[in-house]
Automatic annotation (TrEMBL):
Residues 33-56 have a biased composition (Low complexity). Residues 56-83 form a coiled coil. Keywords: Coiled coil. The keyword Coiled coil applies. The keyword Coiled coil applies. PANTHER family: COILED-COIL DOMAIN-CONTAINING PROTEIN 17. The lineage of its organism: Eukaryota, Metazoa, Chordata, Craniata, Vertebrata. The gene is Ccdc17. InterPro entries: CCDC17 (IPR038800). This is CCD17 protein. Residues 32-56 are annotated as: Disordered. It comes from Burhinus bistriatus.
Length: 138
């Protein structure tokens, strides 16, 4: 739960994730050790008089290591998904802001054009006399 809330809150520091994973592994090992006899598991060896085989303990350790690695990979995937969503949201927010700014600028240009057309003095075109031809040579 701590790990998930850290990731959902935006945490992505590998050192902290490693610590959380280590704490989870310790908690899992403690739970298995403490809850074993209460869940109907036998604390005594399968064969009376013989200790549990090293192979069985090795399999338990390998299984625990595999579970922890799977959880670490799931955490990594979740962190990547969160980062991708944030990037997508940030990109769409930037695009939306730019579109709003463009619309505001276009509106301002339109208002300025209207203002210029209204305030432009409408004088009649200047009528010039016809051009005068140069004098003829003598």
């Amino acid at each position: 739960a701590l790990r998930l809330s850290y990731l959902r809150g935006g945490g992505h520091d590998p050192a902290i994730l490693a610590q959380l994973l280590h704490l989870q592994a310790e908690a899992t090992a403690l739970e298995k050790g403490a809850a074993g006899p209460r869940r109907g598991r036998r604390a005594a060896p399968a064969v009376p008089g013989k200790p549990p085989s090293a192979g069985a303990r090795g399999l338990d350790a390998a299984l625990l290591a595999m579970e922890l690695e799977n959880r670490r990979l799931e955490d990594e995937l979740l962190a990547l998904k969160v980062r991708r969503e944030r990037r997508a949201n940030a990109g769409s927010q930037v695009a939306q802001q730019q579109a709003e700014e463009l619309a505001q600028l276009q509106a301002q240009v339109g208002m300025l054009r209207c203002h210029m057309e209204r305030t432009r003095p409408w004088l009649p075109p200047v009528i010039l006399p016809p051009p005068v031809a140069p004098p003829l040579p003598p």
